[in-house]
Structures are given as C-alpha cells and as structure tokens.
Amino acid sequence: MSWLQDPATIQCLYIVAFALFIYGLMGLTGPRTAVRGNLIAAVGMAIAVLATALTPGMGNWWLILLGIALGTAVGVPAARKVKMTAMPQMVALFNGVGGGAVALVAWVEFRQSNGFTGEPLYVSIATLFAAVVGSVSFWGSNVAFGKLQEILPGRPITVGRMQQPLNLLLVLITLFCGVAVVAGGTSELLMIGLLVASALLGVAVVLPIGGADMPVVISLLNAFTGLSAAATGIALNNTALIVAGMIVGASGSILTNLMAKAMNRSIPAIVAGGFGGDGTTASASGGPTDKTVRRTSASDAAIQMSYARQVVVVPGYGMAVAQAQHAVREMAKELEAKGVNVYYAIHPVAGRMPGHMNVLLAEADVPYEQLKEMDEINGEFARTDVALVIGANDVTNPAAHTDPGSPIYGMPILNVNESRSVIVLKRGMSHGFAGVDNELYYDPRTSMLFGDAKKSVSQVVEELRAL
Amino acid sequence: MSWLQDPATIQCLYIVAFALFIYGLMGLTGPRTAVRGNLIAAVGMAIAVLATALTPGMGNWWLILLGIALGTAVGVPAARKVKMTAMPQMVALFNGVGGGAVALVAWVEFRQSNGFTGEPLYVSIATLFAAVVGSVSFWGSNVAFGKLQEILPGRPITVGRMQQPLNLLLVLITLFCGVAVVAGGTSELLMIGLLVASALLGVAVVLPIGGADMPVVISLLNAFTGLSAAATGIALNNTALIVAGMIVGASGSILTNLMAKAMNRSIPAIVAGGFGGDGTTASASGGPTDKTVRRTSASDAAIQMSYARQVVVVPGYGMAVAQAQHAVREMAKELEAKGVNVYYAIHPVAGRMPGHMNVLLAEADVPYEQLKEMDEINGEFARTDVALVIGANDVTNPAAHTDPGSPIYGMPILNVNESRSVIVLKRGMSHGFAGVDNELYYDPRTSMLFGDAKKSVSQVVEELRAL
Amino acid sequence: MAETQNIAVGVPRESAPGERRVALVPKVVGRLRAAGLDVVVEPGAGGGALMSDWLYEEAGATLGDPWACEIVVKVAAPTPDEIHRLKPGTVLIGFLGTDVEALSTADVHGFAMEAIPRISRAQSMDALSSQSSVAGYLAALLGAQHLTRFYPMLTTAAGTVPPAKVLVLGAGVAGLQALATARRLGAQTTGYDVRPEVAEQVRSVGAKWLDLGIEAIGEGGYARALTDEERAEQVRRLNEAVIGYDVVITTAQVPGRKAPVLVTGDSVTAMRAGSVVVDLAGESGGNCELSVPGEAVVRHDVTIVAPLNLPAGMPEHASELYARNVQALLELLVDQGKLRLDFSDEIVAAACVTRKES
Amino acid sequence: MAETQNIAVGVPRESAPGERRVALVPKVVGRLRAAGLDVVVEPGAGGGALMSDWLYEEAGATLGDPWACEIVVKVAAPTPDEIHRLKPGTVLIGFLGTDVEALSTADVHGFAMEAIPRISRAQSMDALSSQSSVAGYLAALLGAQHLTRFYPMLTTAAGTVPPAKVLVLGAGVAGLQALATARRLGAQTTGYDVRPEVAEQVRSVGAKWLDLGIEAIGEGGYARALTDEERAEQVRRLNEAVIGYDVVITTAQVPGRKAPVLVTGDSVTAMRAGSVVVDLAGESGGNCELSVPGEAVVRHDVTIVAPLNLPAGMPEHASELYARNVQALLELLVDQGKLRLDFSDEIVAAACVTRKES
Amino acid sequence: MLVQNLAILVLAGFVGFAVISKVPNTLHTPLMSGTNAIHGIVLLGALIVLGLGATGALDQILLVIAIAFGTINVVGGFLVTDRMLGMFKAKKEPEE
Amino acid sequence: MLVQNLAILVLAGFVGFAVISKVPNTLHTPLMSGTNAIHGIVLLGALIVLGLGATGALDQILLVIAIAFGTINVVGGFLVTDRMLGMFKAKKEPEE
Ligand SMILES: NC(=O)c1ccc[n+]([C@@H]2O[C@H](COP(=O)([O-])OP(=O)(O)OC[C@H]3O[C@@H](n4cnc5c(N)ncnc54)[C@H](OP(=O)(O)O)[C@@H]3O)[C@@H](O)[C@H]2O)c1
Ligand SMILES: NC(=O)c1ccc[n+]([C@@H]2O[C@H](COP(=O)([O-])OP(=O)(O)OC[C@H]3O[C@@H](n4cnc5c(N)ncnc54)[C@H](OP(=O)(O)O)[C@@H]3O)[C@@H](O)[C@H]2O)c1
Ligand SMILES: NC(=O)c1ccc[n+]([C@@H]2O[C@H](COP(=O)([O-])OP(=O)(O)OC[C@H]3O[C@@H](n4cnc5c(N)ncnc54)[C@H](O)[C@@H]3O)[C@@H](O)[C@H]2O)c1
Ligand SMILES: NC(=O)c1ccc[n+]([C@@H]2O[C@H](COP(=O)([O-])OP(=O)(O)OC[C@H]3O[C@@H](n4cnc5c(N)ncnc54)[C@H](O)[C@@H]3O)[C@@H](O)[C@H]2O)c1
Description:
Chains A, B: One of its GO terms (cellular component) is plasma membrane. By secondary structure, chain A is an alpha/beta fold. Chain A has 17 helices and six strands. Chain A folds into two domains: 82-272, no CATH class; 298-466, Rossmann fold (3-Layer(aba) Sandwich). A six-stranded parallel sheet of chain A has the order 3-2-1-4-5-6. Chain E is mainly α. The longest helix of chain E has 33 residues, at 57-89.
C-alpha cells in the first residue's frame, strides 16, 4: 500500500484522470463519439476521486461517506427521473451545487487557516476568487433553474432604474470584503459578507435576464464554476483540480460564445440585460401574433436529418424563387449516403405553374422514383422523421382542412404536420400566394430555418458533410 | 534588474513564450493566418531566449555570442538564398542541426556531471533519451538532405539481406551503452559509444528509404527532435523546453501521419523500408514508361485554385462518364465566390457526340457566357493560373501538334500546357478515344488527381468550403 | 337493378374540326364508375386521341348515344345541331364560349369550364390552366420545329452554334410553361408581362425578365386592358426588344377582349431571317399583326405560326387533364350518384352560365 | 486584276425536292473570300434556308452561274441535268451517293462528303456527323410533337402525368443526340446498340442502357451486319423490350446496306396506343417494318414517322455546319488560292470517288 | 510550484480552447452538461479539506454539504449527459 | 517537480494533438518547417549549460557548436517558413 500512497503515484493518477477528461471531451464534440466520450470522462473522475482517497493522512471517512451517500441519493434519482424537456434546468442545478461546493470549501479554508494567516498571498487570492465565483454561480444557477422550472416567472425581473446602482453596490461590497481579507483581516464577518454579497449579486444579475437567454447564462455560469474549481486547485496545489477546472473554464467560454451565436445573441447584450442595460430579449421576428416560433440552425437541421430514418422534402414556390433545386438535390445525396430515405412530396399546385416543381427537380437530376404525388405521400408522413419544407407555404397550411373561412379551405394539402418534426425553410414570416397565416409554423414540432432557401440548404449540406 | 532575474519572472516569461508558440501554431494551420502565426511563434522564441539570458548566474557571454553569431551567419543566408524547390532539404538540414544540438548538450551534461553521478534517475534517463534521439535525428536528417540535394543517390541504398541484422546490432549497442550509464557507468566511452551507435542507426535507417518518401521521413525526424527537446527540458527542469518540445513532438506525429496519408503511404511501411522490410516504394501507377507523373490531392488542388486569378475548366468525355457536371458547376461557384475567374474550354470534339459538353453543362446550369470555344480560349491559357482538365484526354494531347505519326496529328487541341499549371482529373493512366499516350501528364507543370471525376471534384468542393 | 338508377354521363365525339380531344378518358371513366355514375360514350369519341372504344368499355363505359344522358360532358362548345339533341334539364359541361343564347333557349344547365373561378379550392377543376400548360409546352416545341436553327448551344467539330434566344410575351400559365420548356431544350429565355408581380415567377423558371416599365394589374389575377397611350408605348418598346430574339412566343390575353397586338409588322421585318413567332392568341385575333390564325406563314423570312386549339395537338394528355377537371366538377355537382346543384356554392354559381328555368 | 486569277467556288441552288439546305452559308463565304477564293452563288440558293441573296452579296459572293466555276459545292448528289452542266476537270463536292458512274463519265473530280474517313484529323470535315446531330435533335422533337402525351413528368392540380419513356435504337451520333435531347425535355431515356462499347456513351448522356446480349462490332467504328440467327434473336428480344416505351427512335444503319428491321409490325401492335416510332433510317429502307418513308402514318393507333432528309428541317444551322465541313475540305484541296490535289493525303484519297483522267 | 501550476493552467486553457472549436449546435447542451460534470472535480477539494482533518462541527457540516454538492454535480452530471446523448444512439436500430 | 513536469508534458501533447487536427496538404510543408523552427528551443538548453558555467575546453567547444546549431535551427527555420508562406500572401494583388 505504501507506494500507492506515494504523492508521485497520486499525481500520476491525477495526470491519467485529466488526460481522460480531455480525451472524453474530444469525444463529446462529435455525435458519433459523444456517448463514449462522456463515459471516458466519468472514468477519469472516478480515478481522480480514488487518487484523492489515497492521499496519506486522510481521515473523517464516515463524514466523507455520509456526504457522498447524500449526494448520490439526491443526484442519481434526479438525473434519472428528470424529463427530457427539463434537462436544461437540471444542468443549471448541478452546476449550481458545484459552485456551492467551491464556495463552502473556500469558507472552511478561511476558517481553518484563521483568515489565511501564514498562507502565501496567492492562496488567499485564489480562495477568495473561488468563494466569490462559486457563490455567484450557485445562486445564479438556482435562479436560472427557478425560471426554467417556472417556479420564478420567466420574464425579466428587474428593480427598474435601481438595477445598475444595486449591482454596483454589491460588487463594491464584495471587493471591499475581499481586499480586507487579503490585506490581513481575519474577521469571519468579512468572509460571510463576501459570500452574501456575491450571492446577492448572482441573484440580481440573473433575475433580469429573460427565459430565452437562459441556456447561454447557464453555460456562462458553468464556465465560471470551472474557473472557480481551477482557483481552488491553485490554492490546494492540486493538479487535477487546476486542469479540469481550467479546461471547463476555457471550453465553457467558447461554448457560451457558440451558443450565443447560434441564437443570434451576443453575450455582452445578455449580460448587459442582467446589469439593467438595454440588451433586447430574443423573440420571434415578424408576425403580429403573440404566438412564438422556434428557430433552428443549419447544423441542427443537418443533425436532425442525418439521424432520421426518413426525410420528406416538400418543395414550394420559394425553392423556385431561390433556384435552390441543385442544392436540394445535393443535400438529398448527402442524406442518402448516410442511409436516410429521402422522398420529395410534390403538391399538385406547388409553385406557380402546373409542373413547376417537376421542371426544377428534373433539372437537378432528381430521380423520378423519388418524386411522390400528394396522395401517395400523405400516408407516409406519419412514418416520417423530418418533413423539410423548402419555400412551400399554402400547400402545407392546415387551415385548408380546419378553417372554413380561409380562402384555401377545401384545397387538399400535404399533411406535413403528421411527421415527427417539421423544419421550414423560408426567409421570414410572410405569407404565400393565398395571403394567409400558416398555423403550421407555431406547431411545437415545427422549427424554422430562416433565410434564402438556397443559402440555407447549402449550409445544411456543409454541415452534413462536416458530421 | 533584480525582479527581472527572479526565477518566477523567468518562468512567467517562459509561459508567455509557449503560449505564443501555441497561438502561432494555431495560426499556421490556416492559409490566411499562417504568415502571422509564424511571426508570433518567432516572437515567442525571442522571449524564451531573452528569459534564459536573464537567468541568474549566466556567464560565458562571449562564447554564447560567438555561438549565436556563428549560427546566424550560417542560418540566415542559407534560409534567404535557398531556391523554393530546395526547401524540403533545407528543412531537413535545420531539423538535423537541432537534433545535433540536443545530442551535444546531452554529451556535455554527461561530462559535467561526471556520468550523472548524484543526479536523480530521471535526469539520466531523459538526457540519454535526448542524446539517442538527437543523434539519430541529426544523422538521419543529413542523409535525407543529401538524398534530396542529390549529393547521395535518391534511390534506396541498402546492404541487402544484412540490413536488418545490422540495424538490430546498432539498436542493441545503443541500448547497452544507455543501460550501462543509467546503471552507474561513468566511462565517457559508453556515452561516445551511445552517440556513435545511434548516429550509425540514423544513417542506416534513412539510407534505404526512397526519395519519394523523404518528406514523410523528415517530418518524422522533426517530431523526434521535438521529443528530444522535451526530454532535455525534463532533465534541465525547463518548462519552455518541455512544452515547446512536446508540442512539436505531438503535432509532428500527427502531421507525419497526415502527410503519409496524403501520399497514400503508411508510416510503418516507410519505416519498414528503412529497416529492410518490404515497404514498397511509391511510384506512378500504370504507364509502362519510366517517366513519372506527379500526383496531387483534392485539398492541394483546392488551395491552388483558390489562390489563382483564372481557372479554366477543360471538360471531356470522362466528365460525361462520371456525370460530374453538377459537381463541376458547384466547384466553379465556390471559386467564383473567392474571386477567381472561371471559364470552361469546350473543345469541338470533346465527348462522344457533337455538343456533348454543352448538353451536360447546360443541365448543370453553367451560364453560356462562361463557355469558351477552342479558338477563343486558346489565347487565354498563357494567362491562366490553373487549367483543370476533367476527364479530357485526346483534346489536350500535344502530340496532335508535335507527332506526325500520331493518329490525332493535325487535330486542333486545347493548349492547356501553356497555362501556369495543369491539374488532370482521371481515374488512371488509360488512354482516350484515340488510344494514344498523352505527354501532357508527364509535364513538370502537370499534376494528376486520380479517381472518378465526380468524386474528385466533390472532394475539391469540400476542401474549398473548408478553406 | 340498382345500377339503372344511377345518373349517366354522356361523352360525345367532338365535332369541331381539328378537335382531337375528348371530354373523358378511360382512366377517369373508371373513377366515375367507382363513384356510382354510369358513363355512355359515343363510338369513336376517343379516336382523335388514339384511344379506342374498347379501352372505354374495359373501364366500364357503355357505347351508345351520349345525348340522352342527364349529364353531357364536352370539350368544345356544342354546335346548334348538338344543342338540339340535348334534353331539357340536361347538365352540359364544357368550354361553352361566350355565346350562350342558344343554350339558354334549350333549357339546359350549362356549366362553362372557363367560368370556374380561379380560387384555391377550384384549382383541380381549372381547365384553363391545365389546357394552357399543354399549349405552353407545345408552343415551345412548335418554335423549335419551325426555327431554322438549334435551340441549344452546340460546340461541334464544324463550329459552334449559339443558343437560341426565346422571348415569351405574357407569362401566364402557358407562358411560364413555354419558358420552362424552351429552357430545358437549352434556349436562353426571357419573359415579359404587364403584371409586374410576374417577374419573380419568370425568374423562378430560370428565365430573365424583360422590364419595359409598363404595368397593368387587373382583377382576379388577370391583366386589365391597357390605355391607348400605354399600348402605343408598349408596342414601341417591344418593337425594339423583340428584334434580338430567335423565337417570340406570345400568349397575351385579356379575358373577353381581342388580344392585344404586341408584335407589329415592322418588328417582324426587323427580326433576323429564319426567326419564328408563335402566336398563342390566334383564337382571339392574335398578338402578332401578321398572324394568320390556324396557319404557319413566312413573312419577311420570318415564320409566323398562329395555331388554333393547340392543346388538341397532344390529345391524350390534354384530354386526361381535362377529364380530371371535369371529374372534379362532377364531384361537386353529384352527390351519391344523384345530381344535386348547390347554387350557394361559389364555384357552382360562377360556372353555371345558363340555368334551366325551374 | 489579281482577283480574277482566284479560283471560284460555285454554290448552286439545290434542286432535290424538300432539300432546304445550301452548301455554303454567308458566314463561310466570308471566310473563303478571306482565304482568297471567289464565290459565285446561284440566285435563290439560300432561299430554302431563309437566307436571302443579299446576305451572300454582303459576305462577298457574286450572284451568277455556279456551274462555270472550277469548284462546285453541293449538298445532295447532282441530277443528270446538273452533271451535264459541269465542265470537265471541275472539282465537285457534296454527298455524291453511291452511283458515281455518271460523274466519272463527265470527267470531274468528285469528292464525296460521306466518304471522308472518320479519323481525328478529318473530324472538322465530317458532314455525316454534323448532319446526324441535326437529325438526332429533330428526331427527338418529332417524337414529342407526334406523341399524344407529354415528354416530361408533370404534377398538376388535374393529376400527375408520368414522364414518357423514350428508347433509341442505334446509338451513333444521331442516336446519342436524340437521347440527350429527349432527356432534356424530361423523358426517361434508354439506348440500345449492337456495339457494346457504346453502353458507356449512352450512360454519359444520362440514359439507361438496354442490354440484349447481342454484339456486332465491325470495322472503323461502324457496326457490321448481323448474321441471320443473330438478327432473328435480336428482333425477338427487341419485340419484347419495345412494348414498354412511348417513343422509339431508330437510327440503326450499316454502311452500304439496307437498314436492319428492328421494330416489326407485331411490336407496333403491342405498343400502347398513342405511342410513336420515329424511323431515321427511312432513306435506307427503314428500321420499322411499317414505315412509309417520307410520311407519318398511324398503324394500330401508333404513329410511325419516317422522315426523309431530316436535317433539311433545320436548314440554317444544318447548312452552316455543312458549309464549315466543306470549308475544312476546301482548305485541304486549295493552297493559296490555287487548286492543289494531293492524293497522297489519306483524306483526299479516300474522299475522291471519281477522278478526272489526266 | 505556483509558476508550474500557472503553466499547467495556461496549457489546460489552450486544451479547452482547441478542443471546442466547432461543435454542431445540437451538441451544445450535452457538451455543456458534460463539462459541467467535469467541474464536479471540486468534490476533490472538499474531500481533501475534510479528509486532512477539519475539526469544528460547523466546518464538518459545511464540508459534508460541500461533498454532497460535489457528488451531486459529478454523478448527476454524467448521468444526465448520458441520457441526453441517448438520442444519438437511437439511430436506425429498427433497420439494422 | 518531476510529476508537475509530467503533467505539463501530457498537456502539451494534447495541445499539439488538438491544434493539428485537419490541415490542408499544401500547408503540410510550411507547418513542418514551422514546428521545426519551434524545436530550435533546444538552443535554450545549450545556453543554460554553457551560461551556468561549463568550463572544460572541449565542453565549451561542444556547447558553442550546440548553440550555433540551435541558432541555425531557430533563425533558419522561421525564415524559411516565412518564405514558404510567401505564396499565400501573393494572391490577387494585381487585381486589387
Ligand atoms: N402550381 C400552380 O399551377 C399555381 C398557379 C397559380 C397559383 N398557385 C398557388 O401558389 C401557391 C403555391 O404554394 P407554395 O406552397 O408552393 O408557395 P406559396 O404558398 O406561395 O409560398 C411560398 C413561400 O416561399 C417563401 N419564399 C419565397 N422566396 C423564397 C426564397 N428565396 N427562399 C426561401 N423561401 C422563399 C415565401 O416566404 P418568405 O417570403 O417568408 O420567404 C412564401 O411563403 C398555392 O397557393 C397555389 O394555389 C399555384
Ligand atoms: N465529340 C464527338 O463528336 C466525337 C465523336 C466520336 C469520337 N470522338 C473522339 O473522342 C475524343 C474526345 O476527347 P476527350 O478528351 O473528351 O475524351 P477522351 O480522349 O476519350 O478521354 C477521356 C478520358 O476520361 C477519362 N475518364 C473516363 N471515365 C472517367 C471518370 N468516371 N472519371 C474520371 N475520368 C474518366 C479516361 O481516363 P481514365 O480511364 O484514366 O479515367 C479518358 O482518358 C476525341 O478523340 C474525339 O475525336 C468525339
Ligand atoms: N389562384 C389560382 O389558383 C390560379 C390558378 C390558375 C391561374 N392563376 C393565375 O391567373 C393568372 C392568369 O393566368 P392565365 O394564363 O390564364 O392568363 P391569360 O391566358 O388570361 O393571359 C396570359 C398572360 O398575358 C398577360 N397579358 C395580358 N395583356 C398583356 C399585354 N398587353 N402585354 C403583355 N402581357 C399581357 C397576362 O398578364 C397573363 O399573364 C396567372 O397569373 C395565374 O397565376 C391562378
Ligand atoms: N473518329 C471520329 O472522329 C468519329 C467521328 C464521327 C463518328 N465516329 C464514330 O462512328 C460511329 C458510327 O457513327 P454513325 O452515327 O455515323 O453511325 P451510323 O449512322 O452508321 O449507325 C448508327 C448506329 O446504329 C448502330 N447499329 C447498326 N446496326 C444495328 C442493329 N442491327 N441494331 C442496333 N443498332 C445498330 C450502329 O452501331 C451505330 O451506332 C460512332 O460510334 C461514332 O462515335 C467517330
């Protein structure tokens, strides 16, 4: 057992652990390797925990086991039972408790070292940093959880014009307490003041942010927690903590950025919102109704389709206007190469002249066998994973069945809304030939990919190739 | 000055230095950022050298300056004057001297520490590792240089069936000397034996490898030198050396792999060749002649074209057979988006029926204005950067002008060989309709992209998108 | 004998000269039978479309006198003779034309296919569209056939021929189809219409848009007639534009009026020798001044073709599409094998041009 | 008067009925003039192709008697009358046909365009290819025009029409062009030939290959005649295959022989009513048993078109391509404005079918 | 010691940066969840401080909570990520 | 110390690996040349050993050679790389 407890062995185990984290993380970036990547990272974590348990002089085993048992008892069922739709708030919660742990450890360290007496400067700074960030992360994440879980209202909550001064005040209090401790203050009140002020800060900053921006905020807080873990690592001189924390900090920042971009939001705007600035909240563009549409991105559309068994392309006048037929054909080929069945549903009056879609698709060399007439394909939609509507509007409008007042009432339509999900490619929310609104776009199973059809489809092709 | 010489400051400068290396290296992976990346890495190097100079207790300044002056006097003119075509051997040489430096330092360390007496085990192991790898790298690189510079014959040089036993012997001697030193031997003969044996090993392994595989070998030796630098860093406890060396070691390995793949070779096969195994040497496939053709890859074709001002596509029967017209059109669009002028040169008898190319290109929606008749385009080739010949053969065959005995003598052809470079897409070296060999393929300005035209063009499109 | 209670649909043989279409095809007969209708076909009715009587019989029709049926479906308007053969109260369906006097005196319910409103729900009955598609397609082919040159560009050992330039004036259903077909064959296509919103549609079939700066948006998606000044200006600008084209296909119509003259004699003189004008408005007087409806003439070395009843040139599919239109209308008029005319229905009301006094 | 020393090329007006082509077009006249040749054009020579005399004059030709020139260029073989008008020693160029007795007695140098060898260097003179291109293109259009159905698939409010299936028998120059053209129009195309190496070429124009398992590779890239058993077997298998097609275009020729019968009367009976057979081998007897050369007949509800001289249907471009072929040959025969017949040249030797006794 | 740790910190930053360069949107959430699980490594901090002898009752309570928190973060994080990624495994099983 | 260095080594390896994932072929040679220049860092080793007091004549000669070698590697490497990359700068100047 002795060599096992050699610090060098433990350090080596730490190196193995973080190497597994990194390797696992690399796996997580690709859909095919993601599951395995997550497992590998988990193994790395197990090794890190074991290595720590080996540390010479470890004691308090009962308490440790108690803590672990408690955590497991709470964490496992929560993770198992949460509904798929509630995942984001669950992640927020898990992230929050991580931050909470960091803050608690920092507090205890303060107490144990009697206010960092005799510790090098960097230890106190790192620990205080960890305390602040951990506390912000804990409380911020909890607010985010509350909003997503609809315990708190999802809309921005502010104290109006007082928001900015309030935030500033909290920042100043935190800073003051921190500086006082670093300068040698040993009163625990300072530490508690710091924790409370940063907790309030976390709440005050996240409350004014709208529900739509929450995923970005959670990702940001996630990166913060990572940084606080790294700081703890510095203070405790623990490589595993430093590496793992920093990796999360860095990758989390990039990820936050990517997520914000994908949602067409900028991080400064979101955070400014939290600080009472004028960051406008994300909302569906156009449409005078208060119904909301779900946007999607080319890469999501690509992934969704590449994991489908059957995709039905529904071309319409917009495909003709965009002259997207060649790009569409290319997309279909990429999908077929991935083993997806692709059909084209040709509505009798899609486009602006009889046979409009035929002419275009033939030009793009789409095999005749893949073109399906309306009657033939309508039964297929229920077995279709993704219906990709490219610049078609009226011919997919359920109002033709349901709304006797509609000018298209009585026209047969393609029942795309029977398929498992619908992706609609068009430039905005404007109407088709018949000039009527399309309920399909507000269906929870529908997501919109806005933009010129040719450009959108080309992007999807690129994403498919990158998979 | 005192804080400047603080070890912490120096360490921090090292961190800055290697951060710049990494940042620079990231830049080097993209054509747009490469130049800047190289500069950034160079700045990092300057900082590392400066930091080292600050180390407390540095002396021997005159000798140091002498060495640097010598190195500069040799290195700068060599780098400045070398012809573009001689670049690979120059890189080999630079790599070699790097390895040489490592070996020399290791030797001196051995001498200074009196055979590593009193040093921890890891120091001796790391130093000996550095010595062996550095020495192999130095001599191997020099042989590679000699081969490419044609000082040594380019073809494989072996001692026949004795190659393997010889190599084995050298490995054993090296191992023996190394183990002896680690075990406590202090005789300098052991060290010299180790250096000499590994030097011979370097020579013996590289000599049997053919000239075509040299770039891969150089890259491999480059990675080795990086590893030896990292080992030196471990021995000297120098972070900058460790990080920089290891990065080069890792990235060099990947790079070697990529290069080998791009040349359709496997590293084991190449090295096996060096060890007297049956790694067949790369040669042009097909063709009974001893003339060689130059292969290229889709990504190279993509880069070459994207940096061209004018590209002329020369379609032929092969494009029709492959039904590559849609892919070609797509490629042209990508190029146009990058500001390249694209024309199509239509030979009167390209294909197998009058107007064959017209029908296909019209199907792919190529604008009529871009189609150029032979007479119109023949004057343009001299002003063309890349002529991309897609499945055309006879219609580009210079024998029509030069060889009165050829069945195609007297037929007007497209003068693609007047353009700055020619890329030919076909499946192999087989003949066209007229059944005659095409000199164009052996022209030094021509490179061949083998494979089905549709597949090749699609790959080029992908690469263009990735740029 | 439940079957005898079904009402019967009669399909006469078309009598108009050159009319090769027929109002119902065997495929549709089968569907009507399935829907509980009897079908009586005049022997030889499908002859012009090369569909023999036994194909009809196989589909479930009986051969006999169609004029005795409760419903008579035709393509062209009935001749006075034919009107006499109609029983009072018969439902007559077809392109009944503007002259419905005779019909109303015959006391029949006349449903004119061309009067069906162009609303979304009625698209499956829209015979104007279906026949215009055929006409547009054939017009493009007619141009290719009469042109002394190739449509597509062709680079050959004997030199390169440039692609033909095709201009379509009037980008309605027929015009768009003509544009699409000509482009498929390799011609460079351009479209023009007075309705500016059509520009996007013209481009959506890969053609260029000729912008002359004259707009005339009428009601119901149709064009209105132009004022005199507008017309003069339009003709002047078209005169200039037309010259550069190898084939000019004209489809400009304004409902219920003589077709506007778009290509003057002067334009024709200025066109390149060997060029072609295909005038689809022949029936309503022609869009080209020099057109001789129903003939192909050469004037100033330019061939001017003004076919009458172009859809009859592709009788099987033209009939099939028409029959499907008729079937859709019948489904509206007949309920469970019984006639049930619901004049509160927008389509029924609009399509009915004469009504039996009841 | 240096100009009078130039030798002159005469362009007669074609006399064969239905021949609308002309041996030289104004564009090529200009080039010949630039090369130092005089051109004499018979008034009205370009009339059939809608090219007026003044276009020739503008290009530098003089109007006059072409038969007096040193070189006379024609499209069709000369009539006995025309042969009488030739001066001895004249160089006559054209499709001279197999009957060259009369020519040789007239003591002229006869160069037959169809005898030009099909080697790479002679491709620019290959009038068989250039005229076959025209024929193939027109054959596909002819099929579309006579078919009672659409070529392309069309999904409309009145139902979907499926794409026409077009089968081309004999995938030489004309056959490939027909395949490509039909496919452009949206038809589903299939090609068949006895030469198996053509399969790849058929696919290269987007068509399917019909494999019947009979091969007959002859010399010089042409097919050889089949043995009797082979022919019987081929016809049997074709009989089966042909049935599923809407349009069958036949181009099968074996040089110097009667065209093989590929489509029997039985096949035609079995084809769907309204289908079309376009027989390009009409001139050499036809590939279809029921063909009436030069006419379009309906047999068993199938239209059988066997046009004679199809290229004359697109006279301007057919003439232009032919004229370029002639020009390329002239460049070989004339050196700096002087006739210089080099019979050691492979092409000159092969093309010369009669030679003046010297 | 500190500077070495700094070097490690910087390198780890680069690793995180280089690994997450271009990730499809659909993987954003699982990736966030996965990295979230990884920073559950803070559990180690709590373990060390408690294991190496924190004594006061309050301290012990605080640390037990910290350990529980850390455990939730780790265990829940990996499990949730795995479940999210389940959809990528589901593909096309019925076919093969 | 050693283990910390090992940690650094491993991390640096990952960085090298992650950065060079997919590089166009045309950049292979410049990239090889660039990394080649970077391992010229061995110059530092020679500097330290000589600077911190190598004394014997042979040792000093060897180290001067080592420094010269290292300098060649560094200076030549970066210069050659820059020249190679020149072709990427050349693009389309005549047009713009
Ligand atoms: N087929 C016929 O014979 C015929 C003839 C006449 C009329 N119609 C009528 O036309 C309609 C046809 O239905 P449909 O579904 O094909 O078309 P639609 O209902 O007219 O809708 C077309 C949609 O395409 C979108 N779009 C336009 N340009 C686009 C571009 N460049 N990129 C992406 N999207 C674009 C438009 O939305 P954004 O502007 O938001 O992008 C529009 O909502 C029917 O109402 C039919 O009755 C048909
Ligand atoms: N246009 C006409 O009217 C006509 C008529 C008859 C004959 N010809 C003759 O045909 C020739 C035409 O010249 P050309 O340059 O167009 O064609 P070519 O000389 O026949 O050469 C075609 C080349 O394409 C390559 N190829 C075939 N399939 C391919 C695929 N799937 N992907 C990539 N490459 C492929 C072949 O090489 P690999 O097998 O190595 O890939 C072959 O060398 C001339 O000799 C002409 O005289 C023309
Ligand atoms: N809502 C529906 O479901 C539906 C169905 C079919 C057609 N339509 C629409 O109805 C419109 C008319 O169709 P149509 O083909 O029967 O029209 P049409 O045959 O009456 O006229 C043909 C075209 O000629 C044009 N025209 C008239 N005068 C002209 C002039 N002086 N110069 C140039 N062009 C002139 C018209 O604008 C029209 O586009 C089309 O736009 C079509 O989209 C709608
Ligand atoms: N070398 C050159 O430059 C050049 C130039 C032009 C043509 N060619 C070649 O010459 C060949 C003949 O051309 P063509 O169009 O003048 O030929 P053609 O008109 O003489 O015959 C047409 C086709 O019919 C086919 N055929 C004959 N008997 C048949 C049968 N019983 N059943 C089915 N098919 C039958 C022939 O194989 C040929 O493909 C072509 O392959 C062409 O590529 C070569």
